[in-house]
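hey can u check if this looks right to u? its 339 residues, i copy pasted from the old doc so theres a chance i mangled smth
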Amino acid sequence: MTASRQNQMVELCNTFVDLFNKLELVTRRIPYNIRRRVQEGGQTLNICRNLTSTYLAIRELEGSNPEEFSKGVNKDFIVSRRKFEGSQYLECMIDMFEKESDGFEDIDLLLCRDIDNHSSINNIAASAAVSLDMVMTYAANQIASMDPDDADGLQLGLDIWDDLHNKAHFSLESVIRRQRMIKYTLIPKHIADSVGNTLTRSLYEYINQAQKAFIYGAPFAALALMRSVLEIVLRDHYKIHLEETNAVNDQNGYLNSLIKGFLEKNPCALHPNTLPIIVSNLHYLRKIANNILHDREADNRLRMPAELDEYILKAMVTLTDLIEGFPHQKKWVELHEPR
């Protein structure tokens, strides 16, 4: 990332934090107060408009260079962004714009409501796949009227596309659906500075590869990579050293002991009711990944979740929050073995 883009990123992140703090102040940290505050007049509407513009600019910059954006962002920004996205502020602001704002519309913002809405994501993915099929059908129908040289090139492309579908079993709809479900992982600057560029880059690459494996339909590879990410984060980011804890490197392996060490040290100062749920979810990821990597006997194998995509997505959220230091204390649901 160039120096100018780096400065742009820093400025946008700082602006977002400042605007979100103002929004929390005027709404008394209650998202549902947004619409009432706008109706009362004052600066609330302008705060929301500026916050929206800044948020969309951040997403555009993030999408154009996710690796550089993800590495070394300010912790205050991570906390503000995750609260904005996860505390219903985003939904309440969209609702306010639809009902109260005069002419302020942005289709990209309205699409943001689909981030956690799987039904909408499925519809978007299906529509995109149908649209591409229409393009392919149109191209096939044009071949007869084209110059032979051009027609040969087009036919080759159509044949390759058919092979992807029929031989490689590539599903564009599934790829689009999974891609829209993924959220970027932000590596806090104080962690990136403390571990150095090499480890930060390695961690990002592991996360990136795990996400790509998930997106392109290789769930076992995604789980194996996520297991590696979990070990790196606990060992190198949170400095869980077994000799400093009561955890023992027992028959369940090194990662099992690292998770026990995390439970004991609680480096993120998680709430006592939250910590056991997080630890349980980390153990579940460890067990499933171990079964894939070590191919244990069937009678000892933890059963795979029926909705594997859904589980991997939730496990990725757990890893993301672990890396980001659990910036937003939300209600956690324990992942259980299917009955």
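The two ends are 48 Å apart (CA to CA).
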